[in-house]
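Dock flavin-adenine dinucleotide; give full complex structure.
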Amino acid sequence: MSHGVVVVGAGQAGFQVAASLREAGWQAPITLIGEEDALPYQRPPLSKAYLAGKTDRDGLWLRPPAYLEEHRIALRRGVRAVAIDRTERRVHLTDGGVCAYDHLVLATGSRNRALPVPGADLSRVHQLRSLDDADALRAGLDGVRAIVVVGAGFIGLEFAAVAAERGHAVTVVEAANRMMARAVSSETAAWFAEAHARAGIEVRCGANVTAIEGVDGRAKAVLLADGTRIPADLVVIGIGVLANDALAKQAGLRASDGIEVDAFLNTDDPAISAIGDCARFPTRFARGLNADDRIRIESVQNAIDQARCLAARLTGRRAAFDAVPWFWSDQGRNKLQIAGLSKPDDESIARGDAAASTVLRFRQGTLCAVETINRPGDHMAARKVLAADIGPTPEEARTENFDFREFARKAP
Ligand code: FAD
């Protein structure tokens, strides 16, 4: 009897692999195990349109509610996978259930890093990862004046922009010396620093939070290492995420800040694959980024692309995962898009003004990433150029009349 595919994690990647398997004609059973109670949903609107009240729950579902039944995808929601028996090929669940598999997909995503300071557990201190978190935050915003956001990464800044638009007084505190320090060039960070300042958001970099002060169990102020006290009626913590790889580790699979997979997204057990935020994979786009040219990427597109690649393999079209990594972040009215991967010391060649900007990033003379703000045409060109690995050189990019879209159009 075929047990089919069992997927742990019913988020972006887990749902997509199930949908792509059916699209590819997979006939055997598919079981999705998701610890959240909600139907599979998109997370990006949680820090943008959903938080701003511009879309409701129905606008978040990855497919209409009837889709799962119509496509014979069994969703077990509100239950957590707690152990994998690799010998018997079974997954054990919190409700005592057991799911047998022929192939197991780990799509367990990531979780927010906790802020290890006194007061982080007070009420009115929020995180933003799940639909429940977003609902709690949305409700918590009513009647609030001063907000402090800890962490100037994508999610913190997206939330700050929405809150400022709603009329809250927002201060963002960041330990690094600039915003989005790990993800973008100093040129792109500086562009957004000005945009956020124009929107009335105060961003303090080089600021280490030592405690959150409370009154009657509620957050009242954020304390910094230099003694500054910033009043806050509500605090949002967005200081990055950690891979959910404990289940894999406990099952003896190789994992270290992410479940290690090969170029085909297989773990060291041929019956188990891992995709999405939780997977650490080799890619030519990570060359020179770190010692082993492997990376873990937290983005919707990566989750979708890996799910499709895996579904293709399971249905007989085996190919290595080779998609260009790309990301977006909407901060207020400004759209940041990034194609490729960069690190802080990669060279930058920037062109832009107060309305839009493009920054080309080079590692050892080779184009490795392109950051665009409000320039979707350059972003699309970047994806094409990076996929084909066709330059330009830094010298070409520096010439006065260099036009990136034109370069991509003429490229072979
Ligand atoms: P997830 O979507 O997180 O799904 C993993 C699921 O697995 C979760 O539901 C989790 O509860 C479940 N799970 C974990 N362990 C178990 C277990 N043992 N048993 C059962 N279930 C389990 N990306 C972008 O590209 N652009 C954006 O603008 C953007 N905005 C974002 C805004 C917010 C607020 C957040 C939180 C994320 C955003 N992201 C964005 C990131 C993007 O949403 C993630 O990269 C993407 O969801 C990853 O998909 P995934 O399936 O790997 O993980």
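Observed: The pocket of flavin-adenine dinucleotide is lined by residues 8-14, 33-36, 43-44, 46-47, 80-81, 107-109, 128-129, 155, 244, 247, 276-278, 298-301, 303, 327-329 (CB under 6 Å).
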